[in-house]
Amino acid sequence: MALFRLPYSFPSTLPSFFPKILLPVPSFSISCSSKSTPNQLKNNDDNSNTDNPKKSKRLSEQSSWEAKDSEGRDYLYRLGKEADNMNIAVGARAGVIDDLFTGNFLGKDSDIVFDYRQKATRSFEYLQGDYYIAPVFLDKVACHIVKNYLAHLLNVKIPLILGVWGGKGQGKTFQTELIFQAMGIEPVIMSAGELESDRAGEPGKLIRERYRTASQVVQNQGKMSCLMINDIDAGLGRFGNTQMTVNNQIVVGTLMNLSDNPTRVSIGQDWRESDITNRVPIIVTGNDFSTIYAPLIRDGRMEKFYWQPTKEDIVNIVHRMYEKDGISKDEVVSIVETFPNQALDFYGALRSRTYDRSISKWIEDIGGIENLGNKLLRRKKNEELPVYTPPQQTVEALLESGYSLLREQQLIMDTKLSKEYMKNIDD
Known about the structure:
38% helix; mainly alpha
């Protein structure tokens, strides 16, 4: 055993700024076994990595910063390679990566999956009550969703997109949402207003991001999901002399590409073999698909479903709507027969019109329209508003509201002020 002893004092040749009186330093010994070899010392020393370059030290056992993809590139490399990367939320989360960058400055949610925590999917907790789902509608939507989830098992070409089209106000979107709620589907929903932007390519990229978000719901939450685009013909359709923009073309091309390659979806990063997206169905609604680019709606890419509710469907849907008001099914039949050839939203507006008189009375109870702003927005915390009493629904009140709506519809069709204003242009 070798013994090494340090001196009690430092050498006398110290710089002048050191104190002259030095305290004695206690001696200590360092011993090593004669049987141990230098190689064994290197292996036993956990802090010595300089002599063993093959074994690199990880930052943390829970760290994902050094995780490699199939090409051997880590997360920071991939993050820098992504186009238009403005992700300032990349940081750390306490107990997951490193505690150094967490706290009140960055916040505890500033981690690499910050964007996925923003609720992009739609849940339907507001759909409380017993609603009627048309059997034909349910069969078509459910069959399309199931076929796409079983596409890898079926030896047949499955269209990725289901196009539900029909007249205005026939409940296409509402019926679809009821089916989502019944099947436990958490969809990602878009509208036609998001299909245009002042930046070229943004709507197409948004569709791909929303599609990948729906895929992440399947992968991470174990729930069925889909991408739904409402009123697609309003954003992509060609009406008269409307202009076809670059974004319209890119959106059409994006949807066609998704239909042809539903498991390889890029949002700007390099293609990777490990980047496989789960196939999720797409459902679009519209009024007239003949205005959309024909190759997009061909049978191989889009399955079409024309929704025109029958009288039985209308009676059942309206009865569920009026059931809580004490209106019987026979009375609903009489109302539907009184106003034939009307869309489903007509009967919803008819019920809403019956509330007008009671709301006008409630405005008078709070002091009139002059005090409306003070009472609704700037009242004191302990001040309560007068109790609003809903009107008692009767068949007579509903019929009166229906005739009022019919007069407004007929007045619009008879007047046609646009022709009066633009008669010189038509000539």
